[in-house]
Design brief:
globular, 18 helices, 419 residues, mainly alpha
Length: 419
């Protein structure tokens, strides 16, 4: 890990920033498990995971660290995330995952539809309120910049880059839209994390049957308890070897596969198959699932999923560190447009969940599989239970495949209503 010069930040070293992040996480974990009545009452209202996400954002907001230019998110998303997926899928019961049914897929598709329809509707609503919000001409036309948000909210970074190349917004507009994208998406994630702690109440509102999700959680918990043992140093080293070893192999294969596709099948770029991150996540998850059919599955008893969960929490902190709340006020008008867009997505998700009686788990993961992709969907899924992380990954993969097409359609619709 290298130190980078973070202009304007009090702390310019990633090594120091990492130390602060880990101490912050340790403090949250320690107080959340404290018997002190003050902490007990506090964490009944505020989910621990939300604090792990929100408090690091304050470090960026108050100029203590520079989350935007830090390498910590890259390290966490490229090394710790795939390792955590391997360790969290190691003990997965694939048959039980499939028993979750088709509601997860329906909610994911609804999330995609909410983004595609929400973009042009947000433009129409914003234009009716204040026509100056949606304007510009040529490369500075706001709708062009919004196409990059559509790419990010359906697929991810690769799809966002594809929209940038297709619709060619100006560099300044693109940078503004990245800010709107991140802030609106992260605010919605904060609400989802709050909802995790109130999922039973939300399920009652949705009249949802969450028995399939609860059954998987129970089976995974029972399996962990049955094979539980005090881990030895050897156990912990093997667990790290499994997670980081598979991650290394996934990087190696991704670095091999992508150049071959770029040369011999460049048209597959439309499906994000030239994205190294896409292959990294796919390969890590696939190998993890494969290992769940071997004796390595028993390392769950030594704490494999606990190590994977620690990696996830570090990732959550680095995601939160990217959010500078004050930037909302720099682009308040466009942030409002993004908020309208997100509200349409969320409203449609709630409506469909209510109609098909889908549990909140499917709503939350289906939404984040679109808005956040492979970096956020497993985080939200794992917040319900570590064994559910693969569900988020599988849906996020669909987002990669549909991202370019959905965002392109959304871009054409936004262009149409902007004329």
């Amino acid at each position: 890990m290298t130190n980078t010069e973070h202009t304007g930040a009090l702390i310019q070293s990633d090594a120091v920033t990492l130390g602060i992040i880990i101490m912050l996480l340790a403090g949250i974990f320690y107080t959340s498990n404290s018997s002190n009545p003050i902490f007990t009452k506090f964490f009944k209202v505020v989910p621990m995971l939300l604090l792990c996400y929100f408090l690091p954002s304050l470090l960026t907001t108050f100029g203590i660290v520079d989350g935007e230019n830090s390498n910590l998110y890259y390290v966490a998303s490229r090394y710790l995330l795939p390792a955590s997926l391997v360790l969290l899928t190691l003990s997965i019961n694939l048959k039980e995952v499939f028993k979750l049914g088709n509601k997860a897929l329906i909610m994911f598709i609804t999330g995609t539809a909410g983004v595609v329809a929400g973009g042009p509707l947000a433009i129409l609503i914003a234009s009716a309120i204040n026509p100056e919000l949606i304007g510009g001409a040529g490369p500075d036309a706001v709708w062009r910049g919004m196409t990059t948000i559509a790419g990010s909210w359906i697929g991810g970074g690769a799809n966002q880059a594809a929209m940038y190349e297709i619709f060619q917004p100006s560099d300044h507009l693109y940078s503004v839209m990245i800010t709107v994208d991140v802030l609106v998406a992260e605010v919605w994630m904060a609400f989802l994390l709050i909802g995790v702690g109130k999922s039973h109440r939300i399920d009652r509102f949705l009249k949802a049957d969450a028995s399939s999700v609860e059954r998987l959680q129970t089976k995974m918990h029972d399996f962990s308890q049955r094979i539980a043992r005090i881990p030895s140093t050897t156990d912990l080293m093997v667990i790290l070897a499994i997670g980081l070893g598979v991650t290394g192999l996934a990087h190696w294969f991704a670095d091999t596969i992508v150049p071959i596709i770029e040369v011999h099948a460049p048209f597959l770029d439309k499906f994000s198959l030239t994205s190294r991150f896409f292959w990294l996540i796919i390969l890590a998850t696939t190998v993890g699932i494969g290992l769940s059919f071997t004796k390595l599955r028993n390392y769950e008893g030594a704490g494999a999923s606990k190590v994977g969960t620690l990696f996830i929490y570090v990732l959550v902190a680095t995601i939160g560190m990217k959010m500078d709340i004050t930037k909302i006020f720099d682009n308040i008008g466009l942030f409002a447009v993004g908020g309208i867009w997100m509200a349409i997505h969320v409203g449609l998700m709630i409506l469909v969940a209510k109609l098909i009686k889908a549990p909140f788990f499917f709503l939350a993961v289906g939404s984040k599989a679109n808005i956040g992709g492979a970096a956020s969907a497993p985080v939200v899924a794992a917040a319900f239970h570590p064994s559910l992380a693969p569900v988020g990954v599988l849906l996020a993969v669909l987002g990669y495949a549909l991202g370019t097409y959905g965002a392109y359609i959304c871009g054409l619709l936004m262009q149409l209503v902007s004329k």
